Amino acid sequence: MTTNQTKISLGSFDKKPVLATGIRITNAGDGLSKALQVDPKVMHHNEKIYVVLETEVTNVAFPPVKDTDGVQRLHTLRAGLDAQEERIKGYSEPALPFGADEKPGGDDTDGGANLTVVK
């Protein structure tokens, strides 16, 4: 399978071509999981999920790319999760009463095959 990708010039650093980009997120720790739990959502295998996270670029480094003469542009991003969690809480949807999202007949199709709701 082939994909059509647009080539983008990433420039150079110290006369070496920039071959790739990457990110590293700091100040997230376990707080990242906690912030994502503010607005729960049922997700399914192979479903694509996009996460928007406000960060600040605190460093840009250019480590070498193994077995090439090029470098990677590596961005270090600092997350401000405490402030974001407070902002997100104001936008959370209200929770449904237990069982309100069940289909008539009691089938639990969100949990997968052969699973039942325990009340």
Structural notes for this entry:
The protein has a domain at 12-89. The mean pLDDT is 74. β1 (12-13) and β2 (16-26) form a beta hairpin. It is elongated, with a radius of gyration of 22 Å. 13% of the residues lie in helices and 24% in strands. The protein has a 4-stranded mixed β-sheet with strand order 1-2-4-3, with no helix packed on it. It has 2 helices and 4 strands; from the N terminus they run ββαββα. The longest helix has 9 residues, at 81-89. The chain starts with 11 loop residues before the first strand and ends in a 30-residue tail after the last helix. The protein has helices spanning 31-36, 81-89, and strands at residues 12-13, 16-26, 55-61, 71-79. 3% of the residues are buried. The chain is an alpha+beta fold and 119 residues long.
Keywords:
about 120 residues; alpha+beta
Explain briefly what this protein structure is.
With 119 residues, the chain is α+β, with helices and mostly antiparallel strands.
The radius of gyration is 22 Å
Q: How many H/I helical runs? A: 2
**Share of helix among residues?**
10-25%
Intertermini distance: 47 Å
Q: Biggest sheet, in brief?
A: 4 strands, mixed
Give the helices and strands, then pairings.
Layout: E1 12-13, E2 16-26, H1 31-36, E3 55-61, E4 71-79, H2 81-89
